[in-house]
Amino acid sequence: MEVTIGNGKELIQQAQAIRYQVFTLEQKIPQELDLDGLDEDSLHALVSEQGKPIATARLKVNQDGSSVMARVAVSEESRGLGIASKLVSALIEHAKNIGVRSIEIHAHSYLRSYYEKFGFKFIQEVEVVGEHQLIEMQYYIVEM
């Protein structure tokens, strides 16, 4: 299993293909909500197994050192193998290495305890996307 982090055109296309499968087809979230125009200005983590892309996540780094992790998606056949945890850990480590101060996520509410294991703190319930209640959580690399 290989994790690649970058923002090249091919990497973004592979990430979008995984997100289309997971978010649009499986979770019935309208594709226009996923394609928000931030992909080109973000870092993307892509997990590949034997050359096949199987998972992705996005990190949008802001000028002030804060960031937003979003679009965490694992292909259906690859779930339950700990791949999402490796993906999230890789992005957190990368964020630390490039001087990011904090990471915000808007996760599905049922994933609260999952993200708490990484050190994310619950902030509040936020928007509903499709039929999914999201929550805001924050990970502090440098206490603000």
Automatic annotation (TrEMBL):
Record-annotated N-acetyltransferase domain positions: 3-142
GO MF: glucosamine 6-phosphate N-acetyltransferase activity
Keyword line: Acyltransferase, Transferase
Family annotation (InterPro entries): Acyl_CoA_acyltransferase (IPR016181), GNAT_dom (IPR000182), GNPNAT1-like (IPR039143)
Highest taxon above the source species: Bacteria
PANTHER family: GLUCOSAMINE 6-PHOSPHATE N-ACETYLTRANSFERASE
Protein name (record): GNAT family N-acetyltransferase
The organism of origin for this protein: Vibrio diazotrophicus
